[in-house]
């Protein structure tokens, strides 16, 4: 019987090739021919799945952001299952966004390359904005939950706090990428701000 192509797998392999090329050599390195070579496919096959380089890059960007949000959700679920405080869970999740190892350093470079492209590409800008909004919403929910369980001051504005925290992490990620020796400092800054925003003890677990 003829083999049935796994189209989702092929797209994922192409997106992974885009990721590796950009992480190593920058956005300009991710040409259709280079992606085909990196993924082990013909240029024609890549063009079969993606009509243009823009389509391919957009798919790779969407996959990158989806994978990131999936990891954050998994860390949240693990923390909740272990009965950790909201502050501890948020610290673990937000630290996931820092380029603290080779894989996340590559991811950060890829993300920044796409964000630069988003300044001139409305579709990429929509993906960037949507991802940022999802992250802010999740952080704001954490702050709101903290108000319910006693970790957060009742007067704290969840949306304002979430906007501040995500902007802080964004800046810290750039700092750590430029100077990995600042990783400990970045973690301390994040932990300190979270301790200020969630200074109480959780009534559910403490």
Would you spell out the secondary-structure blueprint of this structure?
Blueprint: H1 7-25, H2 32-39, H3 43-49, H4 53-81, H5 86-95, H6 102-118, H7 122-149, H8 158-178, H9 183-197
Helix pairs in contact: 1-2, 1-4, 1-6, 2-3, 4-5, 4-6, 4-7, 5-9, 6-7, 7-8, 8-9
Average pLDDT level: 93
Q: Return the string of H and E elements.
A: HHHHHHHHH
> Low-confidence stretches at least 5 residues in length (pLDDT < 50)?
none
**CA radius of gyration:** 20 Å
State the end-to-end CA separation: 61 Å
| Helical/strand content category | mainly alpha
Percent of residues in helices? over 70%
Q: What portion of residues belong to β-strands?
A: under 5%
In total, the number of strands is 0
Query: What general outline do the C-alpha atoms trace?
Result: elongated
- Major sheet size, sense and barrel closure: none
Q: If helices are DSSP runs of H or I spanning 4 or more residues, what is the number of helices?
A: 9
Can you characterise this structure?
The protein has 206 residues and is an all-alpha fold. Helices cover 75% and strands 0% of the residues. It has 9 helices and no strands. The protein has helices spanning 7-25, 32-39, 43-49, 53-81, 86-95, 102-118, 122-149, 158-178, 183-197. Helix 1 (7-25) crosses helix 6 (102-118) and helix 7 (122-149) packs across helix 8. The longest helix has 29 residues, at 53-81. The radius of gyration is 20 Å and the shape is elongated. The N and C termini lie far apart (61 Å).
